[in-house]
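Sequence only, no structure available. Ideas?
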Amino acid sequence: MRRFVVVAALLVQLLGAWCLCAQEPTKPTQHDLDYLLTVIDHQRQSLETLEKRVEELNARLKAVEEKLERENQSVGQRAVPPGLDVWRHEIKKGMSYDQVRQLLGEPVRIENQGSFDETWFYSRSRDSGYVWFNESKVFSWQEPSQ
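Reply:
I predicted one. Tokens follow.
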């Protein structure tokens, strides 16, 4: 219905413009009407092509958004940084990398101190907000300063 209204409005505008441009008020010829119908048909086809392209782009956008959502969930990122209660009561010695990621999310940076030691920093400061792993297990940690 919307397309019909658009096409009808376009036809009225084209006929009106044609009549205004004519030197004398005359009736449009069949040739003029055929030309206008061709123009309208071309515009309709262009509109359909654009609508299909918009549908394709919306589908692609939705797929990308869903993929990002799945990736964020699989990494265990939190929408809000964890509070001190997580640092004080939920982190335990011996936890794995995955368990820490589930609690704290991705670290700001990771530093390797040797073949068995690794430190995950959750703060820009080197003095607070870190988890120290020894042989891939939590050995020690320091909560971030508030």
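Confidence is low (pLDDT under 50) at residues 76-80.
Hope that gets you unstuck.
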